[in-house]
C-alpha cells in the first residue's frame, strides 16, 4: 500500500510548497546553491584550465595543452558515472575502494543524500567536477611532450585506480573514515595531482631540449583570464563542500579569498625582493598555492588563521620552487612543466598540516556532525592528546596519499608504455601542435601559410573553335 501525500493542503506559498518534483525533504535554496557551486567548479576546468594551459605554454603547444584538459574533462565524466562515483563514495567493500557500480539509476540519483537536504544527483555531479579537475591539474606536469594517445589511456586508468582510492579512504568509508581533516581536497585532489603528475613526468621523460631551455607563455593576458576563472571558481570549490548554504559555506568562501590574496601578495613581494621584477606568472603561482593551501581547512579555521596560511603558502612553495628546485639534482632530473608538484603537492601537504593545527572544534562539529575529528592542536586546550593525535592522522594521510599515487601512477605509466610510447617522437616534438593535431593556435596570414593560386575560367578548345568558326 503506497502512501499518498496531499500536497494541495500545504499552507506555504505556491512557489515553496512541496510537490512530486520537489518533495518535503528537498531544500530548494540548498539545491540551487549546490548546482551553482558545481557550475563554478566545472568552469575552473572548462574553460578555466583550458585557457590557462593553452596560453601558459609555448605557442607551438597551445592546442595540444588545451585539448588535453578538454579531453580529460569529457573522459572523466563517463568514467565517473559508469563506475567512479560508487568506487569513491559507495558502500564499504574493502578498506581502499568501493564496488565499481554505475550511478545512472533514477532510484539512486533522485533519493535524498544521507546528511543533507539534497538529491544524490547533486553529489554525483559535484564530485565529478572534483575528479575531473584533479586529473586536469595532473596534466600540467606533462605538457609539451606526452603522446596524446598515451594520455587518452592514462586518464581513465588513473581515475579508476588512483583517484577513487584517495577519495574512498579519506572522504568515503575507507581506512581513514572520520580521521583526516580534508575539507575540500587538499589531500584527495591537490596532493594526489601533484605527486601523480611529478611521477608521470619522470616516466614520460623531458620536453625537447630547446623547449625546456626556452618555454615562454604565448599569451600572458589569457593566462590571467584562465587564472581568474580558477580563483573565482574556487568560491564553488570550497563553498560547495558542505552541501548546504549555511554558515560553514560563508566562512569557507571568505577564508578562501583571504588566503589566496595573501599568498599572491607574499609571492609577489618575494619575487620583487629577490629578482627585482614583479612577475605575472609568479603572481599566478602564488594565487594557486593560496587556493590549494586553504582547501583542506577552508570552512574549519578562523579568518586570522587563513591569513597565516596564506603567508606560509606564499613562502614555502616559493622556496621549494625558486630555490630548492634549482639546487636539487632530483628535482632537475624531472621535467615538471608547470611546477605542479610545488603548487599542488607542497601546498596541499602544507594546508593539510595547518588545518590539523588550526581547525576549531565547533566548526568541525558543524561541518561533520560528529566529534570524531580534531580538535586542531592550537585549539586543544585540555585535550592536547586529541590535538596531537589529529596531527598524526594528518601526517599519516599525507604519507599514504603520496605513496599510493607514486606507486599506482608508475604502474599505469609502465603498462601504457607496453602499448604506445609515452613520449612523442623527436620529429613531432620539433613541430608541436601541427604534427599532433594538424592544427595551430594562431592561423595568421603570413605565418607559414601559402596563399592559394587564383583560379581562372578557361574555355574548352572545342568551344573556342565553335565560337571562331564562320556561320
Characterization of the model:
By secondary structure, the chain is mostly helical. It has 19 helices and no strands. Helix 5 (148-170) runs antiparallel to helix 6 (186-204), helix 6 (186-204) packs parallel to helix 16 and helix 10 (280-294) runs parallel beside helix 14. The longest helix is centred in the last third of the chain and has 34 residues, at 384-417. It is globular and about 90 Å long. It starts with 27 loop residues before the first helix and ends with a helix. The model is unreliable at 1-5 and 445-452 (pLDDT under 50).
What is the C-alpha radius of gyration, as a whole number of Å? 26 Å
DSSP strand content: under 5%
Secondary-structure content class: mainly alpha
Give the helix proportion (percent range). Answer: 55-70%
Number of strands: 0
- Overall mean pLDDT: 91
Gross morphology is globular
- Secondary-structure element string: HHHHHHHHHHHHHHHHHHH
Q: What is the compact description of this entry?
A:
With 471 residues, the protein is mainly α. Helix content is 64%, strand content 0%.
Primary descriptors:
globular, 64% helix, disordered N terminus, 19 helices, 471 residues, mainly alpha
